[in-house]
Amino acid sequence: MTNEPKNVFKTITLDTPKDEVLRILAEDAGVIVKGLLTPDQVARFNTEIDPELEKILAGSQKDNAGVQEFHGAQTKRLTNLVTHSKTFRTEIIDHDKVHELAHAILSPTCETYWMGTAQVIEIGPGNKAQTLHRDFENYMAFKPFGKLAPDVICNFLIALTPFTEENGATRVIPGSQNWDDYEDRGSQDMTVPALLEPGDALFFTGKIVHGGGANITKDSKRRAVAFTFNPGWLVPEEAYPFVVSMDLARTLSPRVQQCLGFRSFRADMFGLPGLWQVNYEEIADYIGLDKKS
Ligand SMILES: O=C(O)CCC(=O)C(=O)O
Ligand SMILES: [Fe+2]
Fold it and tell me: Ligand 2 mean position to 133 CA, how many Å?
């Protein structure tokens, strides 16, 4: 027996057999991946993004009060990570475990998928708990179907600092994927914190109610990188083909190019012609992605 606090979901490692991972996800709609990133990867990634985080302000620049609250008044959110970080674009979003998990959730309705958004979320001291939500609410047409809705989003939150209950560890309502009424987002007293070490990941589907926790410390920042995936047939949050340069895109692996929309979204396994094409042509051919310049 240990006295370690119980975590929000079951914990797996990079060595956990795929069958077991699938069984856990089918039951819990989420899992904690211990040591998804190595300490060296975390250190390199933090070093690459530190100067970019320095440049931005905490809080949303939008007027909408709901958006401001969601963003967090003392929270910095850094996007365009593909451009900012080599570790992110070549190791984190090209990690086999990331794709094994994303595929497990999304493969019933798609063969290839977008990365929806990727951002560093740094919750500063004094930040209130984030509004509880389900990530798939962006795709509001699915909400009335509640637990019967298809899985159209999955989310990785990787700790880049320790996640503690005091510094704003993400809070989750386990089991909320099974509720009939998705207008119901529960309440803070139903949540439990995901306690993580740097490099550990919280992975969950868009049906789980969650939110960033309050940071009640005086001087400890909670930093995470959060990135989502959604089927190729849904519009992603970030418009990657407009923000990632062609020169950079050319250097990426085919799998990452696919997630960023530099390749067409295939649906051969469903007997469909696919999406995101030009004149029924593979977009990678049209834009000359594989041509050596
Ligand atoms: O920062 C967190 O812990 C959660 C953030 C989140 O859920 C979101 O922004 O959608
Ligand atoms: Fe979220």
Answer: 6
Number of structural domains, the chain?
A: 1
Which residue range(s) make up the domain with 154?
11-286
Contact (CB, 8 A) for 170 and 213: yes
Any domain includes 291: no
pTM: predicted TM-score of the whole model, two decimal places:
0.95
Domain with residue 28: its CATH number is 2.60.120.620
Is the residue at 5 inside a domain?
no
What is the distance between the alpha carbons of residues 193 and 167, in angstroms, rounded to a whole number? Answer: 11
Asked, for residue 4, whether it belongs to a domain, the answer is: no
Distance 194 CA to ligand 2 centre (A): 13
Domain for residue 107, yes or no?
yes
Q: Facing residues of 76 across strands? A: 122
Q: Relative to the CA of 123, which ligand 1 atom is closest? A: 1
160-193 tens-digit pLDDT: 999 999 999 999 999 999 999 999 999 999 999 9
Tell me which residues have their CB closer than 6 angstroms to ligand 1.
121, 130, 135, 157, 170, 210-212, 224, 226
Which residues lie closer than 8 Å to 26 by C-beta, 6 or more apart?
none
CA 21 – CA 28 distance, rounded (Å): 10
Let me know: does 195 contact 164? Beta carbons within 8 Å: yes
The separation between the first and the last C-alpha atoms of the chain, rounded to the nearest angstrom, is: 60
CA 272 – ligand 1 centroid, Å: 35
Task: Please give the pLDDT value at position 257.
Answer: 98
Asked if the model's pLDDT at residue 84 lies above 80, the reply is yes
Res 70 pLDDT > 60: yes
